[in-house]
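TA notes, week 10

Several of you asked for a full example with nothing omitted. So below is the full record: C-alpha cells for the whole chain, then the designed sequence directly under it. When grading your own attempts, check the secondary structure regions first.
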C-alpha cells in the first residue's frame, strides 16, 4: 500500500485537531481571562531507503560521501501551547471586579484545594466571602495583622499561609466597636482599604491584601474549566506573595481582563486548516487513483 495514503491520513487527523483548537478559541472569544491555544505540528519518523556513507578518507579520495535517503511517514501533533499573553481591559464599574496587569494569577480556595485564575469577576456571598460566583471558590489574601502603620506590610513568602478574604459592610472595627465598615476600595497593589465610621469620624485602614501566584512556566498549567488552572509537573510550584512585588503584576479594580483571542488570526488559521485538510484529502484521492491504475493492469 502506498505510504502517501497513511501520511495523508495523519495530516487529516492533525488538521481536525487544529480545527478543534481554533473552534475552542473562537468559542471563548468573550470569556474573561481566557488564554488561547496554539497547535504546532511535528514530523513523524521516516522510513530509511538508503543509509548515508562517509567519503573516502585517503589523502587523495577516490569518492565522496553520499547522503542517506529517507521517506517521511506523515505528521503528528507536536504540542498544543497555551499563549499566556495579556488580554485587553474591559471597564465594568463593579467594585469587586479586578484584572491583573502583568504577571501572576489570583489564588482561590475551593474545598481546601488551591486553584489559580486570570479571571477577576468576583462577588460577595451571604457570609461576606469574596468568591468566584459560579463555583464559590474563595479569593485568597493576607490579613491586616501583617500590616503596621510605621513599617508597612511585612515580608511574606510562598510558605506563608493565605486566608479567605471575608468582610461585609457594617462589621465592627477591631480596635473600636463603635466604628462600622461603611465602604472599601482596592488599590493597584491589591490592598483592600476599609472605611469605618462612628457617625462623626471616619477611619481608613487596610483590612486585606490580595495574594497573587507566579509560576516558572505558566504555559504548563493544567486547565480545569471555569477559568481555573492547577499546577502540573512542568509548571513549577506556585510562588505566592503580594500583588505588585517580586515580579507579580498590579491590580486594576473595576475592570476585567478579556480573552486574548484575536479573531482575525483565528479566521486566518481556520482557512489554513481547511485548505490543509483539503490538500491531504486530495493526496488520498490521487493515491487511490494510482492504485486503481495498478489494479487495471491485471485486467488488461
Amino acid at each position: 500500500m502506498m505510504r502517501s495514503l497513511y501520511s495523508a491520513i495523519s495530516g487529516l487527523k492533525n488538521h481536525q485537531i487544529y480545527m478543534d483548537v481554533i473552534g475552542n478559541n473562537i468559542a471563548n472569544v468573550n470569556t474573561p481571562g481566557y488564554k488561547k491555544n496554539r497547535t504546532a505540528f511535528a514530523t513523524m519518523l521516516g522510513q530509511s531507503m538508503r543509509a548515508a556513507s562517509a567519503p573516502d578518507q585517503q589523502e587523495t579520495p577516490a569518492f565522496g560521501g553520499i547522503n542517506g535517503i529517507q521517506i517521511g511517514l506523515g505528521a503528528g501533533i507536536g504540542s498544543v501551547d497555551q499563549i499566556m499573553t495579556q488580554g485587553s481591559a474591559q471597564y465594568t464599574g463593579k467594585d469587586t471586579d479586578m484584572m491583573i496587569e502583568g504577571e501572576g494569577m489570583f489564588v482561590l480556595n475551593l474545598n481546601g484545594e488551591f486553584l489559580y485564575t486570570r479571571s477577576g469577576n468576583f462577588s460577595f456571598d451571604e457570609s461576606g466571602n469574596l468568591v468566584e460566583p459560579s463555583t464559590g471558590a474563595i479569593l485568597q489574601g493576607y490579613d491586616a495583622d501583617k500590616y503596621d502603620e510605621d513599617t508597612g506590610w511585612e515580608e511574606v513568602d510562598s510558605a506563608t499561609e493565605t486566608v479567605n478574604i471575608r468582610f461585609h459592610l457594617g462589621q465592627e472595627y477591631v480596635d473600636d466597636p463603635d466604628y462600622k465598615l461603611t465602604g472599601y476600595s482596592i488599590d493597584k497593589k491589591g490592598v483592600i482599604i476599609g472605611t469605618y465610621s462612628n457617625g462623626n469620624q471616619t477611619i481608613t485602614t487596610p483590612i486585606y491584601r490580595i495574594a497573587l501566584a507566579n509560576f516558572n512556566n505558566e504555559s504548563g498549567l493544567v486547565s480545569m474549566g471555569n477559568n481555573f488552572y492547577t499546577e502540573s509537573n512542568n509548571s513549577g510550584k506556585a510562588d505566592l506573595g503580594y500583588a505588585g512585588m517580586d515580579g507579580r503584576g498590579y491590580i486594576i479594580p473595576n475592570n476585567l481582563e478579556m480573552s486574548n483571542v484575536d479573531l482575525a488570526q483565528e479566521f486566518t488559521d481556520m482557512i489554513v486548516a481547511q485548505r490543509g485538510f483539503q490538500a491531504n484529502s486530495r493526496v488520498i484521492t490521487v493515491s487511490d487513483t494510482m492504485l486503481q491504475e495498478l489494479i487495471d493492469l491485471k485486467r488488461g
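Helices lie at 3-27, 263-299. Use that as a sanity check on your answer.
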